[in-house]
Amino acid sequence: YVCKGELFISDFTISLRGGMKQLNLQYQNKRLRDAIFDPKNYPATLFKLSEQGVEIAFSDYDEFPENVQMTSFEFLMNLGISVMMLLGRGEEYNEGCYILPANGSKFYEIILISFKLSNPGAVDPRLAIGYYQICIFIPISFSYLFPPMEDISFIVDEIQEKISNATELNVEWLISIKHQVLMWIKNHNDLN
User: Fold this and answer.
1) Per mean pLDDT, which range of 30-34, 37-41, 171-175 is the poorest?
2) Measured between alpha carbons, how far is 116 from 127 in angstroms, rounded to an integer?
């Protein structure tokens, strides 16, 4: 600062320290948000409705990270059947994004993304348009960071625009969708 021709070094030093602290806090907050929204912290599974019923199409992890009272396969099948029954009853298959409890889990909820796609491999003509559900497991302690699900419902349209049919679905695609959803939510939090 300059006042009557004099430079007040102490005022300048205080301002500089304050600015450096602010930059350091912003850097630490960015690192924390990057760690919170790291896709590796969010297991994901894709369920599909097949001739045999609900099936696990893909998961991006081997063992569910929580000690549930059953095997990972049993846990996922119970969850898959529950969410499929909830949103895929009768001939109406609801599409959209939802936050739901992860049945049997004390520490996770799920972001559920339900959508339909052409299924050229279907034997049963009723499944020519397949029904799929992505479950992204989110720690309950982070759920306050997630916006209302109608804010990310655009992802269903993007899936249907980018994927022409179910033969294009694979675990790499599942990971990329999970990453896209988490990055959108992270950026949404950066703006708020």
Assistant:
1) 30-34
2) 10
Q: Please determine, for residue 29, whether its predicted confidence score (pLDDT) is greater than 80.
A: no
Neighbours of 73 (CB within 10 A): 12
The Cα 146–Cα 98 span in angstroms is: 11
Measure the CA–CA gap between 81 and 17, rounded to whole angstroms. 57
Question: Which of 98, 74, 102, 77 minimizes the C-alpha distance to 156?
Answer: 98
pTM listed for this prediction = 0.81
Cα distance from N-terminal residue to C-terminal residue, the chain: 33
Q: Which residue has the tokens 């109406």?
A: 92
Distances (CA, A) of 178 to 96, 105, 175: 15, 20, 5
Q: Give the integer Cα–Cα distance in Å for 171 and 50.
A: 18
Instruction: Report the DSSP beta bridge partners of residue 35.
Output: none
